[in-house]
C-alpha cells in the first residue's frame, strides 16, 4: 500500500500542508526542528491513533487551535480509500472514511498500516516495560483492529478497580461492601485481562523468529535475539531467585501460559487476584495483570537491557520494528498489502554498516518515507524522490494551495 496524498490542517506547526506522494522512496530533507517529523508523525497517527513522540493529543494540535485534521488517500492494490481524522483534545476524536458520516476514530484502524522507525525506539530496549507493552499493543491493533477495544476495555476496568482499592485504603478499613464490589470488578478485570494476555502471547510467538532473523541480518549473527513474555499470572523468578533465562520463554507445549485457552487464563487471573488481595488493599492499586507484564529482550544469554552495547541496542530496536514489518507483510496477502515504512531521522544515528544493511532490507517496500537533516546521511539505495521541508511547508512544487 502507499499514500498518494496527505493533507494537514492545524497539526503541530502546520496551519495547512498538502503533499502529493507516491510509491517508492520519498526523502523529506530539512534542518532540525523545521517540521519533518511532524509530517511522518501525522501519518503514523492516522495508522495507529497514537504518536511515537507524545502520549496525549494536546501537543498535536497547533497552539491556539481547537482541532487538527489529518487527511490522506491510501492506495491498496486497485482500491483507493480517503481517510480523515479529527483530533479534538479533551473530547472524542472522530473519523471519516470516503467522506461518509463521522465514525469513532478506531473505525479506521487497519485501513492504513505503517511501521515507523525513530530514535525513540531505543526505549524499546533501554526503557521501562511500558514501552515494550505499548509496542506489542500497537502492533496488535494494526493486525487485529478489534484489539483496540480489548485494550480500552481493560484500561477502563483497571481504572475503576484501582479507584475502589484507593478508596478502601483511604478509608482505613476494608468493609464487606468493598469486598463485594471488588469481587465484581475482579471478574471484569480477569475477562478483559485474559483476552489481552492471550493476544500478546500469540503475537510474541509470531514475532520471536522474525526478531532473531532481523537481528541476524543487521549484525554478524553471532548472538541470537530472543523475546520472552513475562506475565504476572505466573512466577517471574526461578527457585534460586534469579531471573530466568531466554530458554524459559514459555513456548507452546511447555505447560505455560501459552498452552492455556481463554477460559483457563481467566481462571488463572482470578486465582492470582485472590492471592494478591491483601497486598492490593494495603497499597491501593492492582498488582496483577497485563498492565504490569514485561517483554524481556535477550541477546545470547544476557538480558539486552543493561548489557547490550550501544550498537547492539540500536540493532535490536531496529529488529523489533523489522519483525513487525515481516508480520504485517505475511498477514496481508494480496496486492498492496505491505505496510508503509517510515524511517524518521534514523540514519544519522547509525554507523555506515548498519545504514547500508537497513537500507538493503527496506528498499523493496512499496512505499518508504524517510526524514533526514542531511541528504548525505541516506544510503545510496534509498535516495529516491526528495522533498525539501521549509518553515511552514515544502518547497518541491508538490504542495498545493
From TrEMBL:
<protein>
    <recommendedName>
        <fullName>DNA replication and repair protein RecF</fullName>
    </recommendedName>
</protein>
<dbReference type="InterPro" id="IPR003593">
    <property type="entry name" value="AAA+_ATPase"/>
</dbReference>
<dbReference type="InterPro" id="IPR003395">
    <property type="entry name" value="RecF/RecN/SMC_N"/>
</dbReference>
<keyword id="KW-0235">DNA replication</keyword>
<keyword id="KW-0547">Nucleotide-binding</keyword>
<comment type="function">
    <text>The RecF protein is involved in DNA metabolism; it is required for DNA replication and normal SOS inducibility. RecF binds preferentially to single-stranded, linear DNA. It also seems to bind ATP.</text>
</comment>
<keyword id="KW-0067">ATP-binding</keyword>
<feature type="binding site">
    <location>
        <begin position="30"/>
        <end position="37"/>
    </location>
    <ligand>
        <name>ATP</name>
    </ligand>
</feature>
<dbReference type="InterPro" id="IPR018078">
    <property type="entry name" value="DNA-binding_RecF_CS"/>
</dbReference>
<dbReference type="Pfam" id="PF02463">
    <property type="entry name" value="SMC_N"/>
</dbReference>
<feature type="region of interest" description="Disordered">
    <location>
        <begin position="235"/>
        <end position="257"/>
    </location>
</feature>
<keyword id="KW-0963">Cytoplasm</keyword>
<dbReference type="InterPro" id="IPR042174">
    <property type="entry name" value="RecF_2"/>
</dbReference>
<comment type="similarity">
    <text>Belongs to the RecF family.</text>
</comment>
<keyword id="KW-0234">DNA repair</keyword>
<dbReference type="InterPro" id="IPR001238">
    <property type="entry name" value="DNA-binding_RecF"/>
</dbReference>
<feature type="domain" description="AAA+ ATPase">
    <location>
        <begin position="22"/>
        <end position="394"/>
    </location>
</feature>
<keyword id="KW-0227">DNA damage</keyword>
<keyword id="KW-0238">DNA-binding</keyword>
<keyword id="KW-0742">SOS response</keyword>
<dbReference type="InterPro" id="IPR027417">
    <property type="entry name" value="P-loop_NTPase"/>
</dbReference>
Amino acid at each position: 500500500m502507499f499514500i498518494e496524498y496527505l493533507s494537514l490542517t492545524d497539526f503541530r506547526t502546520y496551519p495547512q500542508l498538502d503533499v502529493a506522494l507516491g510509491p517508492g522512496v520519498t526523502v523529506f530533507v530539512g534542518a532540525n526542528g523545521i517540521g519533518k517529523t511532524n509530517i511522518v508523525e501525522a501519518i503514523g497517527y492516522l495508522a495507529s491513533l497514537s504518536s511515537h513522540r507524545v502520549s496525549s493529543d494536546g501537543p498535536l494540535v497547533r497552539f491556539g487551535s481547537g482541532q487538527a485534521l489529518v487527511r490522506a488517500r491510501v492506495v491498496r492494490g486497485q482500491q483507493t480509500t480517503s481517510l480523515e481524522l479529527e483530533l479534538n483534545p479533551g473530547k472524542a476524536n472522530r473519523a471519516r472514511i470516503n467522506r461518509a458520516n463521522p465514525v469513532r476514530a478506531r473505525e479506521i484502524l487497519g485501513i492504513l498500516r505503517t511501521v515507523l522507525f525513530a530514535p525513540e525506539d531505543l526505549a524499546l530496549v533501554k526503557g521501562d516495560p511500558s514501552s515494550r507493552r505499548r509496542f506489542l499493543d500497537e502492533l496488535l491493533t494494526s493486525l487485529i483492529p478489534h484489539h483496540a477495544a480489548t485494550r480500552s476495555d481493560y484500561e477502563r476496568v483497571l481504572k475503576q478497580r484501582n479507584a475502589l482499592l484507593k478508596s478502601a485504603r483511604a478509608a482505613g478499613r476494608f468493609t464487606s461492601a468493598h469486598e463485594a464490589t471488588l469481587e465484581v470488578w475482579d471478574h471484569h478485570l480477569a475477562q478483559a485481562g485474559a483476552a489481552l494476555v492471550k493476544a500478546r502471547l500469540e503475537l510474541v510467538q509470531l514475532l520471536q523468529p522474525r526478531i532473531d532473523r532481523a537481528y541476524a541480518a543487521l549484525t554478524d549473527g553471532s548472538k541470537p535475539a530472543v523475546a520472552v513474555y513475562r506475565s504476572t499470572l505466573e512466577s517471574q523468578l526461578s527457585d534460586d531467585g534469579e531471573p530466568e533465562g531466554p530458554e524459559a520463554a514459555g513456548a507452546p507445549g511447555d505447560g505455560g501460559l501459552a498452552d492455556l485457552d481463554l477460559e483457563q487464563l481467566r481462571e488463572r487471573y482470578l486465582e492470582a487476584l485472590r492471592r494478591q488481595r491483601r497486598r492490593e488493599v494495603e497499597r491501593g492499586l492492582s498488582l496483577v495483570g497485563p498492565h504490569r507484564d514485561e517483554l524481556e529482550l535477550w541477546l545470547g544469554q544476557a538480558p539486552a537491557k543493561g548489557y547490550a552495547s550501544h550498537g547492539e541496542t540500536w540493532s535490536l530496536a531496529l529488529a523489533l520494528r523489522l519483525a513487525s514489518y515481516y508480520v504485517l507483510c505475511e498477514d496481508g496477502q494480496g496486492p498492496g498489502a505491505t505496510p508503509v515504512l517510515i524511517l524518521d531521522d534514523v540514519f544519522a544515528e547509525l554507523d555506515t554498516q548498519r545504514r547500508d544493511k537497513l537500507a538493503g532490507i527496506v528498499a523493496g517496500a512499496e512505499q518508504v518515507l524517510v526524514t533526514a537533516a542531511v541528504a548525505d546521511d541516506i544510503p545510496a539505495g534509498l535516495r529516491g524522490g526528495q522533498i525539501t521541508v521549509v518553515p511552514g511547508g515544502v518547497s518541491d512544487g508538490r504542495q498545493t494551495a
